[in-house]
Amino acid sequence: MNPLPSSVICAGCGFPAPADDPFPFRCPNAGRGNDMDHVMTVVLDAAHLRWPGGREPNPFVRYRTLFHSYHLAAAHGMSDAEYVGLVERLDRAIAAVDGHGFTETPYGRSEALSAGFAPGGGLWVKDETGNVSGSHKARHLMGLLLHLEVVERIGLVPVAGGPPDLAIASCGNAALAAAAVARAADRRLQVFIPTVADPKVVARLRRLEAELTICPREEGLPGDPTYRRLRQAVRQGALPFTCQGSDNGLTIEGGKTLGYEMVSVLAEERHLLDRVFVQVGGGALASAVIQAFQDAVRLGVLARLPRIHAVQTRAVQPLARAYDGVADRIVDRIVREHGRRPAPPDGARERADLILASAASPLVEEELRDAVTHRSEFMWPWEQEPRSVAGGIIDDETYDWAAVVRGMIMTGGYPVAVSEETLLEANGLARSATGINVDPTGSAGLAGLLELKRKQEVGAEERVAVLFTGVQR
């Protein structure tokens, strides 16, 4: 088989998945007693790809030529028309289950939320609340479903006896998205949920015929009990149908369509963003947005990346803790190797600017690589049981932490931890100013912007984007 214009490679150890591997989800070197962060990542060969044009509303049709599943299908003889037909068939089935299929979601400047910005600046909002199942999560899982359908159709996996179970750990939007997508494809789904799951979510999951397992916390065992049960199910043969890149690296690919849509608008309007605020729980959304913008730069669509700000609640901020550990080590190296110049920075913005000025230096890459190979020094479960009004970003760990930390480091961004009061303030402002029925998790990126505006760290002339990612149920 000829080399594909995409490959799946572990961002930790560099393991390359064979081109015909039907399930390049989790690195085979993960869990072998080392302390490395293993995440399988789709890498595009920009020399053999170009940015998709046209105005096709379905993102899985419009951006198909950037998908690994498309490249794999083409290499095994599936025509473009057949692949598009597959997408459209699945989309119709999803619409029959959820009421509508996938289409480009709104993205534009909010006049109401741009108050205080200069005419050339302002706030752009990407509204995902009207997407399949009411959030961005279904994008991730549609990408996985397409891959599964392709590898079965081209004969890389047997279909006799039916497909294996799918499995996910989630307390809300991810589970709903997985259940809707799996039901449309007539695949059995195991869902592991916490005891505090919203009764409305549980009822909807039952209507979608998901197999539910309620997972209480166990005394003395840190971390998320639903995630432990997910890993057990995968060991027993289920496929990880998750939004955690560490368990299924291909989940990021479908999520990138959100960023691709933003990039397409930026390219059409011929402007760039200065900052993007992304709410972070497990980290897949932020990782997907970062990688989408990186793809656009490599393909020559954008001249540069915006600063990336990951937003977490102060009650649960494992990513901010990991970033601080990495950033402090980089600054220590810069100070040691430059003598007295420059002096150690005073705040988060100054530290980020200092690091960005040295981003091309080998020492920054060396420290990032060292962090990936010493995961436990930077990422471990939050010590207290997570609780927040933004329930969708209270993951005990940020599973895709390394990609998000790298994205912030290399763009001059930094994490923003916000109070519960600011989360509620941002949600009230988002709903009243835009009329969008977004929940506190989905508007948490706006909370991060409010926090930095109070600190006078965002200029009036800047172009800033936030993502409204979950509907209020």
In what range is the share of β-strand residues? Answer: 5-15%
Which strand order does the major sheet show? Answer: 3-4-12-9-10-11
Estimated structural class:
alpha/beta
Q: Cα distance, first to last residue? A: 48 Å
Q: What profile does the largest beta sheet have?
A: 6 strands, mixed
Commentary on this structure:
With 473 residues, this protein is of the alpha/beta class. It has a domain at 107-132 and 253-468: Rossmann fold, CATH 3.40.50. Helix content is 41%, strand content 12%. The protein contains 15 helices and 12 strands. The strands form 3 sheets. It has a 6-stranded mixed β-sheet with strand order 3-4-12-9-10-11, with helices on both faces. Strands 7-6-5-8 form a 4-stranded parallel β-sheet, with helices on both faces. Helix 4 (137-153) crosses helix 8 (251-269), helix 10 (318-337) packs antiparallel against helix 12 (362-372) and helix 14 crosses helix 15. The chain is globular. The model has no long low-confidence stretch (mean pLDDT 93).
What is shown here, in short?
The chain has 473 residues and is α/β, with parallel strands linked by helices. The chain has 15 helices and twelve strands. The strands form three sheets. The chain has a six-stranded mixed beta sheet, sandwiched between helices.
